[in-house]
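This section describes the prediction task in plain terms. A model, or a person checking by hand, is given the sequence of a single protein chain and must write out its three-dimensional structure as a string of tokens. No templates, partner chains or ligands are provided. The sample shown here is typical of the held-out split.
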Amino acid sequence: MNDLTMVSLTQQLQRLRPEERVDWLANHPQAAAFVPQLSPLVLHRLAHDLGGQELAPLLPFCSDDQMRSLVDLSAWEQHDFQSEAFEGWLMLNLQGGGRQLDRFLAALDPEQYLLYLVGRVRVHEIDEDERYPTLANAVPGDALWFSPDRRFCVEILHWEKQRDDEGIRSLLHHLEGRNAWELSRLLAALAWELEGPLSEESTRLRRARLEELGFPPLDEAQALYAPASLEFLVASRRREPLSKAPDEAGLALLGRPGPQDLLRHGLEAMVPEAAQMLRSELIYLANRALVADACDPGDQEALHTQTRRVRATVTLGLEFLARKQGGDLTMAAAQVMERYAAATLFRLGVNLVRPLVEMARRLRQDPRSGPDSEALWLGATARGLMDQLLQPRPLAPNGEPIADLATMTKMGQTLEATLSLIVSVFPEPSGVQELYNAEFEGSTFSRPEEMSLEGIARTKEALELLGDRGGLRPLRVSELQALREKAPSDEALGLLLSGPLEPRFLYPLWCELEA
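The expected answer:
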């Protein structure tokens, strides 16, 4: 099948709803040629969306690499092998008949099905008296399986729970039929080999196969988030060669079209060959981000989260360079993407946000933000913004990844205004100690934690209008009328004093409760 035909068929597949794709593929006249060329991640996505059993019509067309990758992607959670998920694929191939099961087992590394067996069986070796000394008498005969040479007795675990053992027995029978000597060797390994080393070897082999699918080593992935100056990144235009990348998983990166969708519009304005290169880079970039955040490559929810983050962060870096270039924004974006790799745009986005993260961290740690480390004196807006910025990966106030300069600028302005307010109230961090030691009994607040920075600032302003610069204290009820007359009526303090002059109505001012 030539590349043009493959592209055309892939485009037709993408236009179908997920529930229509399996039937369309299985019944296509060119299924035998088309299905083996699909990325394993496309098949894994279908299995995730529809359930693995729905892929049964496609299994006869799948290549060995695809079947091995389906196990790699769905039967692991990080370094933990998931026996039940593996058993699902085992039973699905068993239902396809002996030939299909043989194909499936032949495609796997022995370590993959050994890991399944090690959690489901216990192997007992015969002794010189032709007994199995490690086998308990309580184990019933229907929970046992004997190797052809009777050297090994396999106890199927959890027999007391009447767990279905069809998958295990079928696996053992088919291994026996393929090569009895090889089965004997595997049973010896199960009898003597510890699960830990077996799992480590399987993890190593799986990691190598995932790298071939486009998921890089951890150190390469984490380099995406390394600090770098904007000047250095702007000067970086070298494109790195890509590993093999999935051909459909990156479509989610393009998102839905919209009036401010700079990434999509820029891609549409690019030369087709350059646009396809950038799309491939975006897909590989999403894989790198997935690995950097210690997410399992088979985790579809994590992949969805990462594609949204990658898309937003790339768009942020893209907008920065496009506005720097000037002219029509869409055309500038297209020209930027022809010159810069997607990874460089991503790193630009990461490092554009870094100063905001550092400012949020300084504010959170500043004693002038309030007692303890919760910044209780800051307003809900500033606290919420800081909470989002200090997530493992910074977010906008709405909980979405930061995707445009306007949002980033607004966040920076909020933090700057908060910092300015802090400094205006307490020029030195040590100045807050006076308030911590103040007497609160008989006032509108019982302890410093109940106050807000805005209220402290308004109280300090009120005391200065009254000519009292001796330090922070609660306003006396007897001072409120004079204060109303002195405060500008169109400013915050004057507006606050325009209503009833009772302390309970004057929040967030710090006032005495009685005259």
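For orientation: Confidence is low (pLDDT under 50) at residues 245-259.
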